Amino acid sequence: MSDPERELRVSKIRNGTVIDHISGGQALNVLAILGIDGSEGVGVSIGMNVPSDKLGTKDVLKVEDRELSQGEVDVLSLLAPEATVNIVREFEVVEKKRVERPERVVGLLTCPNHNCITNQDEPVESAFEVVDDGVRCEFCGEIVREDIGDHLAVH
Ligand code: CTP
Ligand code: ZN
Q1: Which residue range is the domain that position 43 belongs to?
Q2: Rounded to whole angstroms, how far apart are CA atoms 45 and 38?
Q3: In this predicted structure, what is the pLDDT of residue 154?
Q4: How far is the CA of 93 from the centre of ligand 1 (A)?
Q5: N or C: lower Cβ tally within 10 Å for the chain?
Q6: What confidence tier does 100 reach under pLDDT thresholds 50, 70, 90?
């Protein structure tokens, strides 16, 4: 049972997306992967390391007036596999999107190998295969296991 005294008090939103049960400390990386830096002018609420029954502590993100696509949700799963994504319209949760690991991630990450063809002057879009312990560059084989959030391509 959750203890109401320990619940996060962040206002409900009217329209938008609530990303709940994000692994503790990953909220800023999730914002980065969604390309949200605050300059959009939409309301963003961030709860970090708040108590959670399921996870111990969790992060929660509320983004107003934006509904995440399934593609965005899938990429998010790499950083926050436990996350639940709630689409809110007129204060009601109208949809809970399943977070599933995608098989491939195209254009969203940069390869850490500077010699990789995706890092040369000729533009070649990055593509990574999702493997058990991370993601593998389809061009050079480099594997990113940890800190995937540090390899986000700039939007
Ligand atoms: N939420 C919100 N604004 C709304 C409606 C819901 O910010 N207008 C938030 C809730 O605070 C919660 C999340 O969206 O963090 C999911 O809402 P809901 O499905 O009602 O909560 P639970 O049933 O607790 O969700 P779950 O079973 O996924 O834990
Ligand atoms: Zn590469």
Answers
A1: 11-98
A2: 11
A3: 62
A4: 7
A5: N
A6: confident
Is residue 30 domain-shared with residue 15, that is, in the same domain?
A: yes
Residue 126, both tokens? 């990055």
71 CB-near residues (< 8 Å, 6+ apart): none
The reply to whether 4 falls in a domain is no
Is 5 within the bounds of a domain? no
Parallel, antiparallel or unpaired: strands 56-64 and 104-106: unpaired
Amino acid at residue number 77 = S
Q: Which of 15, 68, 93 to mutate to test the pocket of ligand 1 (most atoms within 8 A of CB)?
A: 93
Instruction: Find the range with the poorest average confidence among 25-34, 66-75, 139-148.
Output: 66-75
Least confident segment among 45-54, 87-96, 117-126, 146-155: 146-155
